[in-house]
Design goal:
mainly alpha, 6 helices, about 70% helix
């Protein structure tokens, strides 16, 4: 028996649909937070991890307070841990559901399932490079995170499309 999303019982399709919508909203809220903390610019993202450079502008001013402080290693560790752990579980869940779609197959199915997991390591690994090696690694962060979220939302879109619009006779699954 081949399992396809559109052939699942109505109750399971509804449950999966709700899950995919909720995880998409949660990810979207994270992107809004990213936008408010970095302005979605390379300069804003670098400042988020390396701190503001206000001290260089007004040397000798005791009241010069940077907009953002350089992230200490403890905060870098907790940010990396939380994001890799949490996002990998989210991407794994969506990847497993996506596996059962009947629209995308072959190489592209495998690529789309694996890509967000690879990019989460690249994205959060590259912020360490930005913080401790060179600020130009921010472009690796931008490319990998963009690809990560595009593939995530593409998979969610395919799943939602198949669960709502693709029709077929649901099979009875005996547990």
């Amino acid at each position: 028996m081949s399992i396809c999303l559109y052939l699942l019982p109505k109750e399971l399709k509804s449950f999966l649909l709700i899950f995919v919508v909720v995880i998409s909203i949660g990810t979207g809220v994270g992107l809004v937070y990213l936008s408010t903390t970095t302005s979605l610019t390379p300069k804003g993202a670098v400042e988020r991890f390396n701190g503001s450079e206000t001290a260089e502008k007004n040397q000798g001013d005791d009241f010069d307070i940077p907009d953002q402080y350089a992230k200490p290693i403890s905060e870098m560790l907790i940010t990396t841990h939380n994001h890799i752990f949490g996002l990998s579980l989210a991407f794994f869940s969506i990847g497993i559901i996506f596996y059962f779609n009947s629209i995308i197959n072959g190489f592209w199915k495998s690529f789309l399932m694996a890509e967000p997991l690879i990019s989460v390591v690249l994205t959060f690994g590259s912020i360490w490079l930005v913080r401790y090696i060179d600020k130009n690694f921010i472009y690796l962060t931008i490319v990998s995170s963009t690809l990560m979220f595009l593939t995530f939302y593409f998979m969610c879109g395919v799943i939602i499309f198949e669960l709502i619009f693709k029709k077929g006779r649901p099979e009875t699954i005996i547990v």
